[in-house]
């Protein structure tokens, strides 16, 4: 098994701090979306344009906030396993790509709120965040596979 330098471990730790910050960012964006959705609902209710009760599942704003957190959680296990397996088993190759993944996690809630996620499903805009993240996951998978099966 390859040895990992202290500097590489420190960089991996910095990536993890960035990753944690991106999760907090997604939570803040979700809360912001809820506040905006409720304010819009109250305004519509006061204007008489709706008689419905507030329903988070019919609001594109709420959906974008919820999907930002949900998508993060759905992919976190795979990213963490691949990132740390790459660092500890595959010789810490391309650790810098962890920052690309972190950047994609920060970008996702922003693009979701700008219309990348709607009731009808994902819009092409959201792929600006998801495609780089998928690339990182596939690349780490390849590096690990190449290391453990050679």
TrEMBL record:
SUPFAM superfamilies: MAPEG domain-like. It comes from Aphanomyces stellatus. The keyword Membrane applies. Its main location: membrane. Keywords: Membrane, Transmembrane, Transmembrane helix. InterPro entries: MAPEG-like_dom_sf, Membr-assoc_MAPEG. It holds the Pfam family MAPEG. One of its GO terms (cellular component) is membrane. It is found in: Membrane. It comes from the Eukaryota. The chain crosses the membrane at residues 12-33, 77-102, 122-145. This is Aste57867_24687 protein.
